[in-house]
Amino acid sequence: MKLTLPGATAIVNTLVIHAEVNRGEGGEEIANTEMEIVGKLLAVFPECLRFLNLSFFPKDLRMQLEKKIKEGLEIEREIEFVAEEVIELARALYSPLQYLDEDIIDPDATKKNILCWDILEKLVSQFSELQNIDVGYKRPPQSLKDGLNSLREKVEKVKRDLHANRETNFG
Amino acid sequence: MLIVKLTLAEATTAVKELIGHIEASTLEDESEARSVLLANQAINKLLKKFPEILEISSLIEEDLEHIHPWIKDAKKVIEK
User: Fold this and answer.
1) Fewer beta carbons below 10 Å: N end or C end of chain A?
2) What is the mean pLDDT of residues B3-7?
3) Where are the domains of chain A?
4) Residue A113, pLDDT score
5) Taking all residues of chain A, what is their mean pLDDT, rounded to a whole number?
């Protein structure tokens, strides 16, 4: 059976609600079958959890689903690029990092910068030749390697600050 | 060909930044035009592999429409 992501999401949403209703009315067996189907759908479409309205779900189930959402977002897929496309991607990702100092006051921009940084590090670790590309644009030429090194200390501080904020919020 | 491994969250950020990269281009020479077209190719590959990016954010669809003139003009610059 072939399904699209929106189709799978709609089915999962309906089945989870049905299963909860059935369980509440003593239909444990039907509820279990419904959740088995949900499990099969989530194995193929883990990202569909992102579109569900989790507030409707019981706390335990919500926690399980939220864990799966996180896992779904972390699944890696392989993309074939030509070298020039990866270079443009690296230059695009480096661009916002130049404003890191200004963005520190904006938590959303800071988080975005950190994500750009992490992706760039991942790209450089996969293709060491990327370190030599020029990211200086119209200013004096600067290699990506030098650019990343000049920002490393700032990024590590921002990461520490973000972590500290998170601990404070939960505390 | 280079094989890059990305997660959905990373691919979404990559698409957003590539869109910003295209919008920031002044297309003043062939090299900039080429950059715009390469960035657009990269966006298309990312969206093909992660179609759910468009379902997560309707804003990205609007942004993609917004960069059409850049792509069109970049092609003109290259054809000259």
Assistant:
1) N
2) 90
3) 5-74, 83-170
4) 82
5) 78
Q: Where are the alpha helices (DSSP H) in chain A?
A: 5-24, 28-44, 59-74, 83-94, 100-103, 107-126, 144-170
Q: Give ipTM to 2 decimals.
A: 0.91
Residues with Cβ within 8 Å of A107's Cβ and at least 6 positions away in sequence, in order, are: A162, A165
Query: Is pLDDT larger for residue A70 or for residue A87?
Result: A87
Residue B63 is encoded by which pair of tokens?
């942004």
Per-residue pLDDT band at B25 (split at 50, 70, 90) = very high
Contact B49 A77 (CB under 8 A): yes
Q: Kindly report the pTM of this predicted structure.
A: 0.70
Reading the block at residue A86, the tokens are: 């990866």
Beta bridge partners of A132: none
Q: Chain B closest CA to A28's CA: distance in Å? A: 33
CB within 8 Å: B38 and A85: yes
Compute CA distances B66 → A103, A145, B59, B61, B69, whole Å: 25, 32, 10, 9, 7
Predicted confidence band of residue A57 (pLDDT cuts 50, 70, 90): low
Q: Do A127 and B2 touch (CB under 8 A)?
A: yes
For the beta carbon of residue A70, count every other beta carbon within 10 angstroms: 13
Of A76, A83, A92, the CB nearest to B6: A76
Write out the DSSP string of A59-104.
HHHHHHHHHHHHHHHH-EEEEEE-HHHHHHHHHHHHGGGGGHHHHT
- Where do we find the tokens 């390469």? B38
Q: H or E stretch including B2? A: strand B2-7
